[in-house]
Specification:
Length: 185
C-alpha cells in the first residue's frame, strides 16, 4: 500500500510542480486519523510507534497510581490521553510544509513521550512537615500531630508508548482513493 502511494505521489510530482492541493487532502486524512486514534483510545499494531504502525490494538490503560492522582485532581478517567480542551489532541497540528512534505507537530513537552514511551527520572524532595494521625494499627485514636522528617529519593516513572500519530491500512487506502480518483487529477 505504501509503495503504491509513493508511486502515485511521484507520478503527481512529475505532472505538477505544486503538490499543495494534494498535500492538503493528505493532511486532512491524517488529522482525521489522529482524531479517531484519540476517540478510540488507540489504533496501533502494538509494537511500532511510527506513523505507519496503525492497527487495531488499544493503548495500555492508565496505571493505578495515575488514576488515583487524576481522581484527586478531578480529571476524567475514561479518555487515556486527552483530559482537557487544551490537552494533547488539540496541540497536534498537521499541515503541508512547502510543496513536498507534511509536518505533524505538537507544542507540548510531553507529546513525544506519549507517542514513543519512555522513562521519566526525577529527584523528589519532601521537606519536614506536620502530619495529623487519627488511626494507629487500624484503630481510631485521639488525633495528634507529629513531625515527619525530610527525605529525598529518586523516582522513575515509566510511560508506555501510546502512539496517537498512526495510520491504519484503511487510512492509507482513503489517501490512495482520494489522490488517485478524479478529485485531484
Amino acid at each position: 500500500m505504501v509503495k503504491k502511494l509513493n508511486s502515485l505521489i511521484s507520478e503527481l510530482k512529475s505532472k505538477a510542480q505544486d503538490l499543495t492541493p494534494v498535500l492538503d487532502v493528505i493532511a486532512a486524512v491524517i488529522s482525521t486519523a489522529i482524531d479517531r486514534n484519540f476517540a478510540e483510545n488507540g489504533r496501533w499494531d502494538g509494537s511500532g510507534t511510527g506513523i505507519l504502525s496503525g492497527g487495531s490494538q488499544k493503548w495500555k490503560p492508565l496505571s493505578l497510581a495515575t488514576k488515583i492522582g487524576y481522581k484527586k485532581f478531578g480529571y476524567d478517567l475514561s479518555p487515556t490521553l486527552h483530559r482537557s480542551t487544551a490537552g494533547l489532541r488539540t496541540s497536534v497540528s498537521v499541515e503541508p510544509r512547502g510543496s513536498s512534505s507534511i509536518g505533524i507537530t505538537s507544542n507540548l513537552p510531553h507529546s513525544a513521550i506519549h507517542q514513543f514511551g519512555g522513562t521519566i527520572n526525577k529527584q523528589v524532595t519532601v521537606k519536614e512537615h506536620t502530619r495529623k494521625i487519627t488511626q494507629a494499627f487500624g484503630k481510631p485514636i485521639k488525633p495528634k500531630s507529629i513531625k515527619v522528617g525530610s527525605f529525598s529519593r529518586k523516582m522513575n516513572t515509566v510511560i508506555p508508548a501510546r502512539p496517537y500519530v498512526t495510520l491504519t491500512e484503511e487510512d492509507l487506502q482513503d489517501i490512495l482513493n482520494l489522490i488517485s480518483g478524479n478529485i485531484l487529477l
